Amino acid sequence: MEPKRYDAVLLASFGGPEGQDDVIPFLRNVTRGRGIPDERLEEVATHYRAHGGVSPINEQNRQLKAALEAELAARGIELPVYWGNRNWDPYVPQTLQQIHDDGHRRVLAVTTSAYSCYSSCRQYREDFGVALRETGLEDELAVDKLRQYFDHPGFVRAFLPSLAAGLREMIAAVGAEKTHVFFATHSIPNSDAAAAGPRPLAAQLREQTGAEAGEANGADVYSAQHLAVAELLMSMVEEGSEVDWSLVYQSRSGPPSVPWLEPDISDAMEQRVTQDGVEAAVVVPLGFVSDHMEVIWDLDTEAKETAEELGIRFVRTDTPGTHREFVSGLVDMISERLAQLDERPQRAGMTQMGPWFDVCRPNCCSKVMRDGTIKPTTSAVDADVTPPQAL
Ligand SMILES: CC1=C(CCC(=O)O)c2cc3nc(cc4[nH]c(cc5[nH]c(cc1n2)c(C)c5CCC(=O)O)c(CCC(=O)O)c4C)C(CCC(=O)O)=C3C
Ligand SMILES: [Fe+2]
Questions:
Q1: pTM of the model
Q2: In this structure, which topology does domain 160-316 adopt according to CATH?
Q3: Could you tell me which CATH class the domain 8-16+55-149+323-343 is placed in?
Q4: Which of 11, 14, 23, 115 maximizes ligand 1 atoms within 8 Å of its Cβ, making it the mutation to test the pocket?
Q5: Which residues surround ligand 2, an ion (CB under 5 A)?
């Protein structure tokens, strides 16, 4: 990747509703063209309704933006930070327009997603590609993306303090043998898991595990990244070696006929309790960057209720949020991208799966839309929106 003198940072996120009237329009934005059944929308709407129609995600992103600005300033890096979402105001296209109007031309995007799959990586690249087409800024604005940072020390370490505290609490209460750590992440369709990341690596994982995506954790890039980070975290906490753990999934949607990654967290909890005599659950929201609706509803409400029904103890540990090490890690990765190639520090990555690619490989997380088209993207070797490098 050529070094660029980036002149703006774009914090790109999912977006969420800010009041009851926003809930349905937001859900329509999220699911446009993707065949999520109406009953599922109604069901998901109740999660937002129960919180006044407000997702906490926007406020969390305002705080992350402020924290990034403060850390950049503290290091003397003069880069303005803008914020744009996929599904709610401020939308990515209007933010890119603003960035351009303000005179900037080279944008480095930081997304609120750590792992590799369509929803968390390529869909952001499409957001940028489509926005550049829509605004007519294709030849004016370069939009690159910070790498997926699942195993960057800043992201990993942000999970540690509350994981250690949760483990200590549960071990004190029921003993290590009866404690289980559930590393929870968003389920995705098996087909998305199969397409995640570079194709050669996906093929290698299928070979190594002798399984197809969805048949076993670790058989696809998405679950393999999560497994690697979960294993690392358990090795980093003192109590880790005494306690059993597993990778589980949440927030499945789409028609039941389409297979998604399993096991679901509630099924997994029930199984551990009935088969292994587990009496305490430490739930780590490993796939998420902040305490948004997927965390406060699917874990703090639903999974907690399951634990109550099963009669076991439950603790949910922290997301990175604006944890100091997380923010500082993001700025480390930004400054790497600003450095000239020969002055670039060693890129940090704590597992065999990383450090991830600064620029996505060919066909990374590929997705053909239902109408047979492929959306324009940026930030990949095969991106079709590639403004001149020599800016
Ligand atoms: C991998 C992944 C992440 C983690 C990485 C990342 O963080 O990016 C994530 C995060 C999030 N998902 C979120 C919300 C939703 N996700 C949905 C639907 C879907 N997610 C998917 C995947 C992911 N999603 C997929 C494959 C679908 C179905 C197809 C589709 O429609 O793309 C739906 C539709 C209704 C439903 O079916 O649940 C909603 C409302 C919010 C906002 C929460 C808030 O408002 O606080 C956040 C941060
Ligand atoms: Fe990707």
A1: 0.96
A2: Rossmann fold (3.40.50)
A3: alpha beta
A4: 14
A5: 121-122, 360, 364-365
pLDDT digits (tens, 9 = 90+) for 93-120: 999 999 999 999 999 999 999 999 999 9
User: How far is 371 from 124, CA to CA, in rounded Å?
Assistant: 19
Q: Return the closest-CA partner of residue 112 out of 146, 157, 71.
A: 146
Mean pLDDT on 277-306: 98
Task: Tell me where in the chain the CATH 3.40.50.1400 domain(s) lie.
Answer: 8-16+55-149+323-343, 160-316
Whole-angstrom distance, CA of residue 162 vs CA of residue 175 = 18
**Shortest-distance ligand to the CA of residue 289:** 1
8 Å CB contact between 126 and 196: no
**Banded pLDDT at 384 (limits 50, 70, 90):** confident
Q: What is the pLDDT of residues 172-220, one digit of tens each?
A: 999 999 999 999 999 999 999 999 999 999 999 999 999 999 999 999 9
